[in-house]
Amino acid sequence: MTNTVDKREIEQFSSLSNKWWDKSGPFSALHKMSNARIEFIKQNATRILNKNKVDINFLEGINCLDIGCGGGILSEKLKRLGAAVTGIDASKKSIDIAIEHAKKSRLEINYKCITTSELLEIKKEKVLNKFDLVVASEVIEHVNNRKIFLSNISDLCRPGGIVVFTTINKSLLGIFFGKYLAEDVLKILPAGTHEVEKLISPENLAKEAEEHGIILDSFTGFIPTFRLNNIMKKEFGNFKLTSNILVNYGAAGIRI
């Protein structure tokens, strides 16, 4: 079995696992992006939802897989929208934090310390084509083998289901703002969080995904807001959706 996990990156995230729910800590950007990420997911989930859904239970009846869930920031929001959520991550420490926080929040989420390859290998008959919605948010830029990772996602998502990615564009602006400014200048992210060679452009992601039966046809950008107090504190404000996909972007589409 070939694994897509980069052990060095997993060790780094594991070392920070007790900081997942510190909204001013090393994962503050993920917290501030979470509402914009959810908005993008909802926009695309409407393709497979009953049009009469109300916001409070928007994803009710949807079987969702959150890949690279970390401490559960996005998984909990998806669960609160009514989805049946399975969150997976290769870091046991992160999964332990996610389980503990979900219990405190009284949320029933199926967390597993496992990779996509291991999930398919161990429970292939149960998970093949199982999920209506597969989310890989801020994950694809950390895997060792995108081809296998995309193949696994395709196998996990049912035909007609929705796949959502969010990541950093491999553009000059993406590299400057998403890596060097965030890691080295503002220090919003721990140094070494991203490797330039692992970043991918929307065009290449769409091309590679299509090779595995995932047709990405919805793209959006994520841009932080800045107020004077944010600049003084060397931090981002909350993120909002934008048509500019040169830095952070989301890509979504149908698994055919």
Question: Care to describe what's here?
Answer:
- The chain is built from 9 helices and 8 strands.
- With about 260 residues, the chain is α/β, with parallel strands linked by helices.
- The chain has a single domain, classed as Vaccinia Virus protein VP39 (Rossmann fold).
- The chain has an 8-stranded mixed beta sheet with strand order 3-2-1-4-5-8-6-7.
- Helix 4 links the parallel strand 2 and strand 3.
- Helix 2 runs parallel beside helix 3 and helix 5 runs parallel beside helix 6.
- The longest helix is centred in the first third of the chain and has 18 residues.
- The chain starts with 6 loop residues before the first helix and ends with a strand.
CATH architectural designation: 3-Layer(aba) Sandwich
What is the CA-atom radius of gyration, in angstroms? 17 Å
Q: CATH superfamily, please?
A: Vaccinia Virus protein VP39
N- to C-terminal separation? 25 Å
CATH class: Alpha Beta
SSE order in H/E notation? HHEHEHEHEHEHHEHEE
Regions with little confidence, pLDDT below 50 for 5+ residues: none
Mean pLDDT across the residues is: 91
Tell me roughly what share of residues is in helical segments: 25-40%
Summed up, the domain count is 1
In spatial order, strands of the major sheet run 3-2-1-4-5-8-6-7
Number of helices: 9
Describe the sheet with the most strands.
8 strands, mixed
In CATH, the topology is named Rossmann fold
Task: Provide a short characterization of the protein structure.
The protein contains nine helices and eight strands. The radius of gyration is 17 Å and the shape is globular.
